[in-house]
Fold this sequence. Notes:
Blueprint: H1 2-18, E1 26-28, H2 32-43, E2 52-57, E3 63-68, H3 75-81, E4 84-88, E5 91-97, H4 98-103, H5 109-117, E6 134-137, E7 143-144
Parallel strand pairs: 1-4, 2-5
Antiparallel strand pairs: 2-3, 3-6, 4-5, 6-7
Amino acid sequence: MKKSILILLILLSLVSCSSQKVKSKIIYTLPFVVTEKIYEKLKMIDNTDGISFTLGNDTGGNYIIYINMPKQDEYKFWVENTNRVILIKEKTYPLVLESDEYFSYPEDEKLVLRKLEQEESIRKMTVMRDNVFNVRFNLNGEIIK
């Protein structure tokens, strides 16, 4: 009897481990003309490994998509931990939302929670995008100059 209870407990624990959610990617697709413009730029880059994108809004309600070259700083945290990807010609690239930069911290969740609890300072990051390739477009897919 004890052996059957033990076997049942082991089986239940194995089933619960296998039924955990697998982290799925959220795939973003942009309007065709925007995707084509980005693709043309990507073709001019020798090595696209490590490239990511940032999607944001301007003050007029239009969207802006930025190409980010590989980063070695705190920004890399967002790129490595996002579950969003943008699809460009059958290839996916990590996608970070500009709101992530404003409202989150480029640090591990447990570390941020501990720092908040202990009222320690949390690292905040400001991203400057001067002379970075971007495409500004509206919801209808029209590219805005």
